[in-house]
Amino acid sequence: MRSESLLRVQTMRAQSLKKKTKLESALEKNPDSTVAANASADGDVDPTTPGARAGSWFATLASSTTSAFATKVETLDELRLDVTTANDAYEAAKVRYETIQRAMRVELPRVHARLGVILNRSFRAAQLRLKELAAAQAGAWEAVMPGCADVAALDPPPMPTPAEGVVEALARGLAGVMGAKTPAILGEKP
């Protein structure tokens, strides 16, 4: 929603600037009458065009294509109205975006705090269930193999040192578990 609103603000600003530039260009060219972008108001063929003799097939073709693609003649008042409308749309979009920003400054911290509470409760519940599951599994193994719960846990495998690669760390770890003094995988003699 916020990104859509920001996109709308940027679009409205671009349209407003485009219309303002068009108005300024029209005022520089012809400050007292109308502005035509591509064609005259009645769509007549330019007499200086080669082959544009009156009544010729080219004149008929040029007249029909010119009128089909002719742009509307706009007065300066219409251009000013377009600029005002575009500015109003830009301001409205900007106000909406700022309203969304203010709401998010208040709502996001509240939502994050609530989400933190929910996640912490969920993790705590999962921890309790996993503890119960581990106890149930230990009890099941104890029923199958009496005395297995009394065995001491193995030492955790050593962490690799920063200069050591993965293969070397695995070899060192395996050597420690198997009771060897030096890793034979690395080509060293025991």
Residue windows where pLDDT falls under 50 for at least 5 positions: 34-49
What is the alpha-carbon Rg in Å?
40 Å
- Rough shape? elongated
Number of strands: 2
Helix and strand sequence: HEHEHH
Question: Main sheet, how many strands, which sense, barrel?
Answer: 2 strands, antiparallel
Estimate the strand proportion: under 5%
Mean pLDDT, rounded to whole units? Answer: 76
**Count of helices?**
4
Secondary structure blueprint with pairings:
Layout: H1 2-29, E1 34-35, H2 57-69, E2 74-75, H3 76-144, H4 166-178
Helix pairs in contact: 1-3
Describe what you observe in this structure:
By secondary structure, the chain is mostly helical. The protein folds into 2 domains: 2-113; 155-184. It has helices at 2-29, 57-69, 76-144, 166-178, and strands spanning 34-35, 74-75. Strands 1-2 form a two-stranded antiparallel sheet. It is elongated. The model is unreliable at 34-49 (pLDDT under 50).
For the structure shown, list the relevant keywords.
two-stranded antiparallel sheet, 190 residues, mainly alpha
